[in-house]
């Protein structure tokens, strides 16, 4: 028996298989494939980024149907007759609406000599998502020209007091429910001026706080945006647009309902603005600049924290009893400022 040392395939008989060349240019891909199978899978921010890479992609990414689908998937409330009619009047349709409504509004320092003009009507398009799935969508139209609205405290309610909206959110009956909602809940409140075709998003996207009421057991999720729109040094130099979503109902282990969704505006003194004052803030906000949309919840929490600290300091300055005279056992007198001591203790 003998064994051959010759390899079964020698180098002289080896065959090299060449792979087909891989396309390295977008020009080799049919535009219909890019538009139907690639761009339709992108969200709004990714589509904006793709449009900046080449002339070809910019043209494909400007297709109205793409942005219409993105608006409807991001905000189901935009697929209502009134909102669709407003979007149809914009220069670039849904693309213009998305560019104004998606980023966080940072506000504009109002010029007292400039008349921004008050809108005669406000439209609120509100969408709530839980774990990236829509659970609440509604559009409410608010008339703003009546004397009652201008003089009364500003407030927009998306639900009547007797109405509720069933949700799939479980009620554990513990603080775990509040903790989970911070990460799983998101909200968009788009305020629209249908006359001037302007819009802005008043929500921090993610909750700035979620708390359970100790008596009723209801859970309040708060969203907030701080606008810098008033005169410097005034109480309305910065105002907070606070959105509160109230959850309740359902026994422990069941599912909770949305019982209330409301918007109010308060100044640095904690005073709620009336309709006329709020319209002035919104008119300036419609003309304001927009922040980084990818950091909406971070910016919202940061501005909410700064606003609360400024309101706390302002309240301390208005309290004459915040400074007291203290005399020790040796008869030495000193001034005590409890508010300053509280602030020092917060840093520990």
Automatic annotation (TrEMBL):
Residues 292-313 are annotated as: Disordered. SUPFAM superfamilies: F-box domain. Pfam families: F-box. InterPro entries: AT3G44326-like (IPR045283), F-box-like_dom_sf (IPR036047), F-box_dom (IPR001810). Residues 31-68 form the F-box domain. It comes from the Eukaryota. Coiled coil: none annotated. Transmembrane segments: none annotated. PANTHER family: F-BOX PROTEIN-RELATED, OS11G0155100 PROTEIN. This is F-box domain-containing protein. It comes from Salix brachista. The lineage of its organism: Eukaryota, Viridiplantae, Streptophyta, Embryophyta, Tracheophyta.
């Amino acid at each position: 028996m003998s064994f051959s040392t010759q390899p079964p395939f020698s180098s002289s008989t080896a065959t090299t298989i060449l792979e087909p060349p891989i396309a390295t240019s977008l020009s080799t891909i049919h535009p219909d494939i890019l538009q139907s199978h690639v761009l339709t899978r992108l969200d709004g921010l990714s589509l904006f980024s793709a449009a900046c890479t080449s002339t070809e992609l910019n043209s494909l990414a400007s297709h109205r149907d793409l942005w219409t689908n993105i608006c409807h998937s991001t905000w189901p409330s935009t697929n209502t007759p009134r909102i669709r009619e407003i979007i149809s009047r914009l220069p670039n349709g849904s693309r213009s609406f998305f560019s104004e409504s998606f980023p966080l509004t940072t506000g504009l320092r109002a010029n007292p000599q400039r008349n921004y003009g008050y809108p005669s009507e406000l439209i609120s398009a509100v969408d709530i998502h839980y774990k990236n799935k829509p659970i609440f969508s509604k559009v409410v139209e608010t008339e703003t020209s009546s004397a009652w609205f201008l003089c009364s405290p500003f407030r927009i309610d998306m639900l009547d007091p007797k109405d509720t909206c069933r949700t799939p959110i479980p009620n554990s009956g513990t603080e775990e429910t509040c903790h989970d909602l911070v990460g799983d809940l998101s909200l968009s409140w788009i305020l629209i001026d249908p006359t001037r075709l302007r819009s802005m998003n008043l929500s921090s996207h993610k909750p700035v706080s979620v708390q359970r009421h100790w008596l009723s057991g209801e859970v309040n999720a708060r969203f907030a945006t701080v606008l810098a729109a008033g005169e410097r040094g005034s109480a309305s130099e910065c105002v907070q647009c606070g959105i509160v979503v109230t959850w309740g109902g359902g026994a422990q282990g069941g599912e909770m309902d949305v019982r209330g969704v409301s918007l109010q505006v308060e100044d640095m003194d904690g005073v709620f603005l009336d309709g006329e004052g709020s319209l002035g803030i919104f008119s300036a906000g419609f003309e304001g600049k927009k922040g980084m949309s990818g950091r909406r919840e971070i910016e919202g929490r940061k501005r909410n924290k700064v606003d609360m600290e400024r309101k706390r300091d302002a309240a301390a300055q208005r309290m004459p009893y915040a400074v007291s005279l203290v005399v020790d056992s040796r008869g030495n007198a000193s001034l005590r400022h409890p508010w300053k001591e509280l602030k020092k203790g917060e840093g520990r």
